Amino acid sequence: MLAGAALAAALAADLSVKHLFLSEAWNSRVLVPGLLETHYAWNRGVSFSLFWQSGSLGSGLLAALLLAVVLGFAVAAFRTAKPLVAAGLGLIVGGALGNLADRYVHGAVFDFLVVRLGAHPLFVCNSADIFISLGVLCLAADMLRAEPKRPQSSS
């Protein structure tokens, strides 16, 4: 249930934010000076434009591979008994589905948020990428949590 809620929230928020940015023409605006600004870009690859695809066959194969990975994460999200893992995987799947929806509708992922360190741009991302990153942080937090001590059995 938590995985489904996180997935639905991430997907709905991502699609809404992207629609807002595309329809309201927020391109080239400073949001937080020296930290965040907008610049529209279409990414035909994956993170940091790796595996860039310019043809429809390559794009279709990349989308199919990504969908298979997303389905694997979704299965894991709904099978886990750990709430933090379920939420994290749900956020990852919701964000990934948002990016896959972009690929289906636009042929590329809509990136719009430039993260800067002062005058130096670090990377361009979108709301789906933020949800994916939050999901990864949830998984890391779960891994770092101390396991409760189990009673030792006498031999």
Polypeptide structure, described:
The protein has 4 helices and 4 strands, in the order αββααββα. It has one domain. The model has no long low-confidence stretch (mean pLDDT 87). It is an alpha+beta fold. The termini are far apart. α1 (2-23) runs parallel beside α3 (83-106), α2 (56-79) packs antiparallel against α3 (83-106) and α3 runs antiparallel to α4. Helices cover 57% and strands 17% of the residues. A 4-stranded antiparallel beta sheet has the order 1-2-3-4.
Give me a quick take on this structure.
57% of the residues lie in helices and 17% in strands. By secondary structure, it is α+β, with helices and mostly antiparallel strands.
Descriptive terms for the model:
alpha+beta, 4-stranded antiparallel sheet, globular, 155 residues
Encode the helix/strand succession as letters: HEEHHEEH
What percent strand?
15-25%
Shape: globular
Quaternary structure state of the chains depicted: single chain
Calculate Rg over CA atoms: 18 Å
Determine the fraction of residues in helical runs and give it as a percent range: 55-70%
End-to-end C-alpha gap: 40 Å
Query: How would you sum up the major sheet?
Result: 4 strands, antiparallel
**What would you call the structural class?**
alpha+beta
Number of domains: 1
Name the strands of the widest sheet in spatial order.
1-2-3-4
Low-confidence stretches: none
